[in-house]
Design goal:
Three copies of one chain form a homotrimer.
Chain A (H helix, E strand, L loop, with lengths): L6 E2 L8 H7 L4 H10 L10 E2 L6 E12 L15 H4 L5 E13 L3 H9 L4 E8 L2 H7 L3 E3 L1 E2 L8 E6 L3 E3 L2 E3 L4 E5 L2 E5 L4 H23 L4 H7 L2 H4 L5
Helix pairs in contact in A: 2-6, 6-7
């Protein structure tokens, strides 16, 4: 039987609440463009919105699972329930299950508990179950898909609030996570203010372009007027 | 032109009707956990619920298709219509099309006929067509996806009510098939009673855990109280 | 910095409007069967209906994007806005982005503009963004998926109204494109009349088969009566 010493960090620095709130009206494409202006890569690949029509914004609580060896099965009864003693209302739970699609690491009991605690949503590099109930609860969940098979006795926690990799992106605890129907991305917490400013500029320009097209400009004219391409280009 | 002697077995032993009914209130995760307690693998991988919000439970009628050689095309006008002379109300049609995604083996005429005969649903290791009409009929269908291209003159029946492999799982005629939004699985017919008993225990424990969390226990406390992990562990 | 001379063809020959209209009541499976009778391959693979419950029929305006080399980034502010100076109401925009899934080539500004101009829908061998807004607009869009990341400064137009390849199918400007929940396909414009005739025969036979099953025939009897298999077989 191996040692079981998961790293658990209880106190983390989160992106400030007012910054989180300010991102709420921005889409993942708006924020993605702002990330590019700041030469930051944040877009997760292969992770889909599994409940349509919901928006998710909040600081990351991170979890890393690793496979349990056959010899260790039955020795651990902990799949991270105390995660909920660490997470705060508004947090997004970000789970690195190594992209595994053959067993799950999330279900309806965790969803029910998360909603009760005011958790903003869950992002999984892997799959989950109890999809019917989670759809009814309209809980924001982003993952690779669904499967009935449990992860219990198949995985163990390697760390809570350690840096994780999800959809090819490094996520550190407290980083800002944003998800909508298009996908999910991460904004590094110490860059959130400047990304916010740029994302608002993009959103404003896009809104003006649509207004201009409504009032008769061609799309090309409208884009030029609002310097759309410059807004999406990396700062020099 | 090759011989065409598909194996067709008309009389099969089905899991009893009252057992089928008793599974109706259990989810695929509940039953998956009960399968694990009994060291049975039954979860199909890569087969998705294609119509959301419907539940399917019933004994399997199995169909195995194999590709038709070019020389044989045009020589067979039989894609298993007499399947409907063999299937009974409540049965689930389980089609092994070898995971093929380049032509279909199911569509709206078969769906219409199936609904008329009271068939419970269809599971396909492959793809189907007429998705728009099937969505309107809210017919339970589990598959790899959809495509417009017919399988006629591309496939032939190799057997009806022979053992088939779907989503990596061996299915024998009469085995119990259960599907919901999370996925689809098989319970071997002669193990259905004991799996049912265990699945009910899992479902009951999960319900009690949610009630306990509602009334103020932490998730960890609630799981311990209802021996959640023991319930999901293989019997020794 | 490389040369930038995209091929732009403004005048194309379209499949006639009355033929387009006549296809509106036919499903992609109906038309796929008619294509097979005429030994034409037209079904796109790997391209999914991303907005459920909408139908799309119209002549293709084609766009081919190619990657922009790093040295060229920032030198082009043109992602095909003048596409909308070429497309006519009722056209389907068919985009060959080489199957790329790591950056997008379509979003809500283009969708808004397309709807304003009466464009019938968009088919993409690649991914798009602003999925939430596009879902609200119920715009017919067929693609490999969604992602927040822009294609700006990553792609350039190689040609408009040049032959393109989408989902494994060659599409020439003016070819008929048809999409529904099952998938999307192409009918070569100079074959549209004969494909239409055959597709109507298939549709009529399928309708009669369903009526016959409703009134008590077995499926096998109904199929034989309406020569279903012959209708789907290539003409000799």
């Amino acid at each position: 039987m191996g040692d079981y010493n998961p790293t658990v960090i209880r106190q983390i620095e989160r992106v400030p609440k007012e910054v989180v709130e300010a991102f709420r009206d921005l889409s993942t494409p708006n924020v993605s463009d702002a990330l590019e202006r700041n030469r930051i890569n944040g877009v997760m690949e292969g992770i889909k919105a599994m409940v349509q029509g919901v928006k998710m914004v909040g600081p990351a609580i991170t979890v890393r699972y690793v496979p349990l060896s056959p010899a260790e099965q039955g020795t651990k009864e902990d799949i991270g329930d105390y995660l909920f003693e660490i997470a705060q209302p508004g947090d997004v739970i970000v789970i690195d299950n190594g992209g595994v699609t053959t067993y799950t690491c999330w279900g309806d009991i965790l969803t029910f508990t998360a909603i009760k605690l005011g958790i903003a949503g869950t992002v999984i590099d892997g799959v989950f179950r109890d999809y019917d109930n989670i759809l009814k609860m309209k809980y924001p969940i982003f993952a690779k898909g669904t499967l009935p098979r449990t992860g219990k006795d198949r995985l163990q926690i390697d760390g809570i609030n350690v840096p994780v990799e999800v959809g090819g992106i490094l996520v550190r605890p407290g980083d800002l996570i944003i998800g909508d129907d298009t996908g999910v991305l991460r904004v590094p917490k110490e860059r959130a203010q400047e990304v916010l400013k740029d994302a608002k500029e993009v959103e404003e320009a896009e809104r003006m372009i649509i207004e201009s097209v409504k009032s008769g400009l061609t799309l090309r004219e409208a884009r030029q007027r609002y310097r759309y391409f410059q807004l999406q280009r990396a700062k020099t």
